[in-house]
Amino acid sequence: MKKKRSLLPDCTEAGYCCDKKQYNEASFLEKIKMLFHMALCKPCRDYSSKNTKLTKLIEKSDLKPCPEEDKKIWKQTIEKEISK
Amino acid sequence: MSINKIDPTKWVDKYSDYLFNYTIARVNDRELANDLISETFLAGLKSMKNFKGEASERTWLISILKRKIIDQYRKINSNKGRAEIKIKYKEDSNEGDWLEEQAPDRFDKTAEDMMENEELGLAILNCMESLPDKQAKIFKMKTIDGFDTETICNEFNITPSNLWVIIHRARTTLAQCLEKNWF
Q: Does the pTM of the predicted model rise above 0.80?
């Protein structure tokens, strides 16, 4: 049976939209639906505020990704040393 | 008191990001950071017998890394007296070249800000360790490495909906963890 989609998303869907928004991947329609939902739902407003805060903290922390090639080399070195 | 176990085969997956960010904040040189981490893993393997399990594996590895970083500082300081001083004067022929060393220091961030940001970064990585392996990997790829949704879905053979469920769970756990440990 095809799932019926309403104009107002439920909390789960609103949560996913909020996550997508943090990565600039929410569509215009998703953003509008989310805003409507948030206007009526306090727990989702709280989640959205925490989520935005988390994004800001991650940006502020300026975490550097560790290069994958180096990880591979380290893994090989460790395996080699263990097998000695 | 619980005894922590040691498992070197998981060191890279579990701690390399933490060690990397810890080191890069102190030596500010990617290559040197890689060398120091590599040396730390090797030293850890050699002294595995000394691991009593009182501290966590990560704390133990950090203590080894700290010594490696201090040795590095000492090495730099002992070379200072012998350093050859070269002064580069700006030549007209170089006009238009943007030399890194001529760039001004960042004025928007104080040393305190940078220290706080480094601690924050380590707190985030610390919280990420509490996530299940797959969740942590996907969250890291999406949020820190900045991979697009399609690439991650192909890599893990999951649908975009699955990906957003995983990201949602990871973000909820991280927000709770940081609320407890950071705010």
A: no
